[in-house]
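User: Could you write out the 3D structure of this protein bound to pyridoxal-5'-phosphate? I've included everything you need below.
Assistant: Certainly. Input first, then the structure.
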Amino acid sequence: MSALYGTYARSELAFERGEGMRLFSQDGTSYLDFHSGIAVNALGHGDAHVVAALKSAAEKVWHTSNVFTIPEQERLAQRLVDATFADKVFFTNSGAEALECAIKTARHYFFAKGQPDKYEVIAFTGSFHGRTMATIAAGGNPGYTEGFGPVMPGFKHAAPGDLDAVRALITPNTCAILIEPVQGEGGVTAMTAEFMQGLRALCDKHDMLLILDEVQCGYGRTGRFFAFEWANITPDIVAVAKAIGAGFPIGACLAKAEIAASMVPGTHGSTYGGNPLGTAVANAVLDRILAPGFIDHVNQMGQVLAWHLQQLAQRFPQYVLELRGKGLLAGIKITPPVRDFVSRLRDDHHMLAIGAGDNVLRLLPPLIVSEADIKEAIDKLAAAFTAIEAEAAAAPAVA
Ligand code: PLP
């Protein structure tokens, strides 16, 4: 029996090595990875440039405290600022911590302006922002808050897409709207450009900040560096993680200068956040993501995937109810229970994918995916549906 907490419904499958789009189990079986460690392995497995950067950094300084200057951290922050809307960056170890920093930054901004009561955040049903006490409150999913004492106050929830519902929740105490431009865990729901623009307008009108959670959908996955770019808006604060280290645990909170200005010494901190090893790796990841053509490739592959999924939906209308998502964050709402379908794909077809809320199958391939990989994945999905069909035909009819 495992000595680990029982917090995960784990498969017994363990991987020994990875190469590009493939993971190899201990018995040498190859698995096509459309899971990416939940949108983390943006560059697949064993990217030579990132591995070299990690090895070289490991020979130098692994860690120093943030009370010293960390040149790789300074460089990574400057590059993120140069590439995005942001002027300031705080590094964390995870997505949830990036969200914690985002929420603290928004509240402290108004506190410093003499408005300490302006701390409420409007978030959305079906969202996921992490597992800390603040981020489970922000997510608002009772399944994640129940049994952990009082839910942290200061969060209200509206249905995604419903601007009137958001409007109805705004009070003089509302400091921010927090949203995933494409909900991941909740069921791969992409917000429309109009809705995102509506949120921006509400924030401008009511002196509130727009905080975006791009932990899953950001860093190129939708075919733009940030998913919000599809809506032509500018946020005030953005949380990122996952792909930024492509497997090394690192996250970041990006903000406009004026908004981050009150986060002075003593207001926030992290022992490991942005340490030399992590930021050396993240700089190498960024070299790859910002290389000319990389995000164009993601955009193209997103379209190829969408086209093939439409064909699949037409071929299996009894199993595919709806296609969702954006770019390489794709969702298929299916009729078979998604948990069983994920196991079937893994065990019988050696393909890794992941479930999401609302019985949606989530496809999150590494961003280096090729057209041939996509066709292979579609063949595996078709084979899994065909097998279900055959089993249903062979099963004795229920009276
Ligand atoms: N926000 C989103 C949109 C996520 O998908 C996740 C993790 O899945 C998080 C936040 C939390 O990130 P982490 O698990 O690194 O704390």
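Residues 371-394 form the longest helix (24 residues).
User: Perfect, thank you.
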